[in-house]
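Appendix C reproduces, verbatim, an entry submitted by the partner laboratory led by Prof. M.T., so that reviewers can inspect both the input and the predicted structure.
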Amino acid sequence: MGFTSTSSNAKLLREIQRSLREVAVSEAGLIEATNSQIAATIASSRTDARLINVDGLNLHTETVGGHTHLITEDHARVATNYVFAEHDGASTTAVITPNEGQAIVVTDLVIAGEKRTNATIVVRFTDGTNTAGIISPVVNDDAVNLHIGFVGRYRGWRDARIEFITDTANQVATITVGYYHLRGEGVLDFATWDALR
C-alpha cells in the first residue's frame, strides 16, 4: 500500500498507526469485556422519557407494555372518543354535550336512516340560543348511509352541544360521532366562531 508524501496523507498514516496500536489488545483483554459490563454501560447511558419543549412544540410520550414511546400522532387520533344514538320516530337527542367552557371537535360522522316519506335527519351544533347545521340528509327518496371523516378542525363554539334530530313518526335512524373536547385558547364564543366561517 503506497501513500504520496503530502502532509495530509502522512498525518492520516500516523492516525491509522496510532489507532492500530490502541486496538492491539491481547486476547485476555478482550475476554474481560463481558456482556454484563456492556449491559451496565448501556443502562447507565439511558435517560427517562419525559415531556420536552422544542421551540414551542410539545412532544409527548406514552408507556405501553412497560416501554415508553414517542407519540407522533395528532391530538385527534390520540384523544378521540365516539358516541352512538338511535331514534325510532320523531325525536331530538343531545348526543354530545361539552363540559362547561369547552367546545367539541368532530372527527368522524356516520349516519344511517331508512327511507321515509317527508323525513329529514338533522345533525347540528347548538347552545340553546345559536344553531349551526352540520348535515341534514333528506330521506324522502332514498335511505341514507353516510360516513364523513373530517380532515380539518370541524369544531363548535363554547358550550355548543351536538344534537341529532329525526322529524317523522316511525323514522329509524342512527348516528355515530367521533369527537374530542377542546379546552383553552382554541375555544371561541359564538360570534367569533361565526365570523371565522
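The first helix runs from residue 7 to 23. Additional entries are available on request from the coordinating office.
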